[in-house]
Amino acid sequence: YFQLKQCSAPCHGHISREDYAALVEGATLFLAGRNKDIARLFKGRMAAAASREEFEEAGKYRDLIRAIELTVERQKVSSSGGDSDVLGVVAADGELHITLLFIRNGLLIGSRNYSSPWELDLSDGLASFLLGYYSQEVIIPDEILLPLPLDELPALEELLSEKRGRKVTIASPSRGAKLELVQMAVKNARNIAAEKMKHDKEKGGVLEELREKLHLERLPARIECYDISNIQGKLAVGSRVTFVQGEPEKSLYRKYRIKSVDQADDFGMMREILSRRFAKGKEEESLPDLILVDGGIGQLNILTAVLEELGISGTDLAGLAKSRVQRDMTSNEIVKSDERVFRPGRKNPIALRQNSAPLLLLARIRDEAHRFAITYHKKLRGGAAISSALDNISGVGPARRKALLKKFGTVEALRKAGAEEISTIKGINRELAEEILKWLAS
Question: Which residues are CB-neighbours of 168 under 8 A, at least 6 positions away?
């Protein structure tokens, strides 16, 4: 993104703190709808850059000003210039879909969509949403526009006015520009509901096709996948990702630090994490419909053996082996084999059409398990590296190492930090910070 001129790359040090703070200030003004202020600010910076004959810098500000002016023209929805939140609500298929439009200084600056199960009255659902949403740390505008009247309006107005410290009006308009805004929000909510129903229907079709193709006992509504990450057995970790109805359920993701295997033994590591997961699976957590492992027949055999040892049945099992490169030594063309799905009791893999929706879903789940494991492994490696680098520095004990690890994460990030930033950590003064940098530079 930096090379595409879409990011200032602060994480790589390509922009100073001062210049980055200026960008943050501009973004804050823009998101608050204060576009006249930001245009005035950028015009001043453009003129200053031009006077210094820094014409490339001046050109950047000119392009920013043009982009802001074009965006503002498209966003303009109200001549009153006030701040409003506009809600649209639709009930469909046992769910409540709400669209929230944010209008600041008469400009539509953004929107958010919410969906949740709901079987009661529409008005009760809307009232419940308002209480939940505005009880958070969110901006409370001058006015909140609703698509239907609520009995609780006076109490809600009083509550939000007290929280904001200024008068808040909640209304259900019946005509004019405000009604048009509410209708726009309702239309958006209706579109979101239709898209979700279509998406759910498509997902159900993919899961049913997967059940048929893999000859599963039941629909794989909940799928768990496991993977291993290590370097020659060091800092080995395992991961579990869970997909429900074809979508990731991150609250059910788990990561495991391998404890019983200290060498490069992927089979042994897989046995450990599967045993730890399913030893308590019946009591503490519901079993999945399908368990997927990253690998071929070997990993699948381990999975089968672990579940048999634990007496767990009624769950379908599968292994997804990555495609392999096949190269004819007489040809310059490199050919990849198909991804292969293995099932217990079958010697040969099941052939799923490449790029078909069921195979793409399995590959997505497998790749997510791999990503999750790699991320955890890298975090442990970074922590081990920084702890090792700090081990011999006088005055840096376990508590200070932990604090440095928490703030900087890696040795490289610590090296780039200045003594002033390091000394902001509790228990580390300026003298010790300089000693840490000196030690790391040696």
Answer: 140, 141, 142, 143, 144, 157, 160, 161
In the structure encoding, which two tokens stand for residue 373, read together?
A: 């494991």
Q: pLDDT digits over 342-368, tens only? A: 999 888 888 888 888 899 999 999 989
> Which whole-number Å values give the CA distances from 114 to 87, 133, 140, 224, in the listed order?
11, 10, 18, 26
Distance, in Å, from the CA atom of 356 to the CA atom of 212, rounded to the nearest integer, reads 14
Q: What is the pTM of this model?
A: 0.53
Judge whether 408 and 414 are in contact, CB under 8 Å: yes
Which of 278-282, 361-365, 437-441 is most confident?
361-365
- Residues with Cβ within 8 Å of 265's Cβ and at least 6 positions away in sequence, in order, are 233
3-state SS of 279-313?
HCHHHHCCCCCEEEEECCHHHHHHHHHHHHHHCCC
Given a contact cutoff of 8 angstroms between Cβ atoms, the answer to whether 145 and 182 are in contact is yes
b/e burial code for range 110-149 (CB count within 10 A of at least 16 → b) = eeebbeeebeeeeeebbbebbeebbeeeeebbebbbbbee
Distance between CA atoms of residues 235 and 383, nearest Å:
11
Output the pLDDT for position 244: 92
Residue 347 tokens read as: 């010697």
DSSP codes of every residue in 187-213? HHHHHHHHHHHHHHHHHHHHHHHHHHH
- Which residues does residue 91 pair with via DSSP β-bridges, in sequence order? 96
- Rounded to whole angstroms, the Cα distance separating 172 from 113 reads 20
The tens digit of pLDDT for each residue in 371-418 reads 888 876 566 555 544 455 565 566 676 677 677 767 776 666 776 777
N- to C-terminal Cα distance for the chain? 34
Tell me the C-alpha distance between 211 and 217, whole Å: 7
Q: Is the pLDDT of residue 284 over 60?
A: no
Helix (H) or strand (E) holding 87: strand 84-92
User: Shortest CA distance to 343 belongs to which of 304, 286, 312, 384?
Assistant: 304
